[in-house]
Amino acid sequence: MLAMANHRRPNLLRQSISDNKSPGDPKFMEAFELNKEEAEDVFFKQAWLTYFWRRAKNHGVEDDIAEERLQFWISHIGQSPTSHDAVDVERGVLELRKLGIEQQLWEASRREIELASPTNHD
Question: Which segments show compositional bias classed as Basic residues (predicted)?
Fold first, then answer.
């Protein structure tokens, strides 16, 4: 699922994400509005990030940060996205990948299914 969010549309802002010390660091640039397609991409990725962090919180995955990340993405829902939001979602997707959230959630779901399975008699 994370791959879908990642490959939905390549983002032109990815280069600025990888080099935080560059003079064009997005934190120091003025935000600009996105066109319709870019805004839809940001909305889509915000929804995915909210979905993954809610599942992480519910399954006890990355307990130390899941609630904070969930609240961060919830707070961005419904706002008109800017270039800063585009950078934020790319960083968020990268964070999910680095932490292996999708794999951890899959493993947690499998454990729950195995525990609930009537064939598991000890």
Answer: 1-11
Nearest to 53 by CA among 109, 9, 102: 102
Q: What is the C-alpha to C-alpha distance for residues 86 and 102, in angstroms, rounded to an integer?
A: 21
Residue 98 counted as domain residue: yes
The three-class DSSP label of residue 35 is: coil
Give 5's strand partners.
none
Strand partners, 82: 33
- Number of structural domains the chain divides into: 1
| Local confidence band at 27 (pLDDT 50, 70, 90 cut-offs) | low
User: Which of 98 and 4 is assigned the larger pLDDT?
Assistant: 98
Query: Which structural domain, as residue segments, surrounds residue 93?
Result: 36-114
